């Protein structure tokens, strides 16, 4: 069984993330969505809320693709999380050249820690490439329309969380 790990904070999960999950599902039998606890980022949503949104959105994708998709919170090194879930590949999404520089360094470090785990880069469809959770939260905070960036469930959760 080929297992992939797609890590991130997912605060909140966006259509860009969902596009990467859909594409990654074609490459593996099981896709683990590694939900980083990452207290340093000060997420808007609690870990439990982020996991619940991911599970709700990925249930539909799992049915459509036939790939098992599960959420897995983690707070350790990414490479250790990959080992914990039995992943042979780490899936990373790229939006722009700026992402590549950071990801390139991360791949080098991960390969030094465990050369048996490959990293695969996927780009979201062009219409989703500019979407970033940070910007979605900012638009929502300022009362803007985020419906083209997130699912209706996530939009509703953003409004609830922000009192909008």
Automatic annotation (TrEMBL):
GO terms under biological process: coenzyme A biosynthetic process
Annotated positions binding ATP: 9-10, 17, 93-95, 103, 128-134
GO terms assigned for molecular function: ATP binding; pantetheine-phosphate adenylyltransferase activity
Needed co-factor(s): Mg(2+)
Main location: cytoplasm
Annotated pathway: Cofactor biosynthesis; coenzyme A biosynthesis; CoA from (R)-pantothenate: step 4/5
One cellular-component annotation, GO: cytoplasm
Catalytic activity line of the entry: (R)-4'-phosphopantetheine + ATP + H(+) = 3'-dephospho-CoA + diphosphate
Site positions for Transition state stabilizer: 17
Top-rank EC class of the record's enzyme: transferase
Subcellular location per the Swiss-Prot or TrEMBL entry: Cytoplasm
Pfam families: CTP_transf_like (PF01467)
Cytidyltransferase-like domain boundaries: 5-138
Keywords recorded for this protein, A-Z: ATP-binding, Coenzyme A biosynthesis, Cytoplasm, Magnesium, Nucleotide-binding, Nucleotidyltransferase, Transferase
Binding site for substrate: 9, 41, 78, 92
NCBIfam families: coaD_prev_kdtB, cyt_tran_rel
Assembly mode: Homohexamer.
Family according to the record: Belongs to the bacterial CoaD family.
Reported function: Reversibly transfers an adenylyl group from ATP to 4'-phosphopantetheine, yielding dephospho-CoA (dPCoA) and pyrophosphate.
Name of the featured protein: Phosphopantetheine adenylyltransferase
Name of encoding gene: coaA
């Amino acid at each position: 069984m080929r297992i992939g790990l797609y890590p991130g904070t997912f605060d909140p999960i966006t259509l860009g993330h969902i596009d990467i999950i859909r594409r990654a599902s074609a490459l593996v039998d099981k896709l683990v969505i590694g939900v980083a606890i990452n207290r340093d980022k000060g997420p808007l949503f609690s870990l439990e809320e982020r996991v619940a949104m991911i599970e709700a959105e990925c249930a539909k994708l799992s049915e459509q693709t036939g790939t098992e998709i599960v959420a897995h919170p983690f707070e350790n090194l990414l490479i250790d999380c990959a080992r914990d879930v039995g992943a042979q590949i780490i899936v990373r999404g790229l939006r722009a050249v700026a992402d590549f520089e950071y990801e390139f360094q991360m791949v080098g470090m991960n390969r030094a820690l465990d050369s048996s785990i490959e990293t695969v880069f996927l780009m979201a469809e062009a219409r989703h490439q500019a979407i970033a959770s940070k910007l979605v939260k900012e638009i929502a905070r300022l009362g803007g329309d985020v419906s083209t960036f997130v699912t209706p469930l996530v939009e509703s959760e953003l409004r609830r969380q922000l009192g909008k």
